[in-house]
Amino acid sequence: MPHIIEGQMTAQGLKVAIVATRFNDFVVSHLISGAMDFLTRHGMQAEDATIIRVPGAFELPLVCKKVAASGKYDGIVALGAVIRGGTPHFDYVCNEAAKGLAMVSLDKDIPLGFGLLTCDTLEQAIDRAGAKSGNKGVEAASAMLETIRVLEQI
Ligand code: INI
């Protein structure tokens, strides 16, 4: 029989930083609510979460890096929404944010839930922030929690 490692989905006792953009707050506020709702329903105390607001997706990696370096948190949920306009700006912001966040997680050895929506339209973003297509904030919080619990066993 193989030895199987799986994360238990309990958030009891965890300290979590939710780093979220102010850009597109109309959408992002629902991602924050989704992440908080998921974590508290899985046992985290609301006062053990710190919500940090940053200007836009481009700023997420630097702030997450500082959060990770503080050593105060078991995991990070990074939340934001980049919505395509008529210029290539979208691609630069998405690519740098995604690359930067992956780098923070690997360099700083910290589970980071990637909850950055990258959408062509506002409707797609709304669908993924608690409407038709679920809530990416919930997914990111869940992925962070599972990863924390997996890493503890390795
Ligand atoms: N930031 C976002 O979080 N979402 C967007 O859709 C967006 N658009 O479309 O421009 C965006 N741009 C701002 C960027 O993240 C930086 O905050 C800005 O360039 C200043 O550094």
How would you concisely characterize the structure shown here?
By secondary structure, the protein is of the alpha/beta class. 45% of the residues lie in helices and 22% in strands.
Spans of 5+ residues with little confidence (pLDDT < 50)? none
**Class by SSE composition:** alpha/beta
How many helices? The count is: 5
Distance between the termini: 18 Å
Strand order of the largest sheet: 2-1-3-4
Task: Kindly report the oligomeric state of this protein.
Answer: single chain
Residue-averaged pLDDT, rounded? 97
Helical fraction:
40-55%
Beta strand count: 6
Main sheet, how many strands, which sense, barrel?
4 strands, parallel
Strand/helix succession: EHEHEHEHEEH
Overall 3D form: globular
| Spatial extent as radius of gyration | 15 Å
Instruction: Report the bound ligands by name, code or SMILES.
Output: 5-nitro-6-ribityl-amino-2,4(1H,3H)-pyrimidinedione
Approximate strand percentage: 15-25%
Question: What is the secondary structure topology, with strand pairs?
Answer:
Blueprint: E1 16-21, H1 25-41, E2 49-54, H2 60-70, E3 75-83, H3 89-107, E4 112-119, H4 122-127, E5 129-131, E6 134-135, H5 136-151
Parallel strand pairs: 1-2, 1-3, 3-4
Antiparallel strand pairs: 5-6
The chain binds 5-nitro-6-ribityl-amino-2,4(1H,3H)-pyrimidinedione.
5-nitro-6-ribityl-amino-2,4(1H,3H)-pyrimidinedione (INI) is lined by residues 21, 23-24, 55-59, 80-83, 85, 89-90, 93.
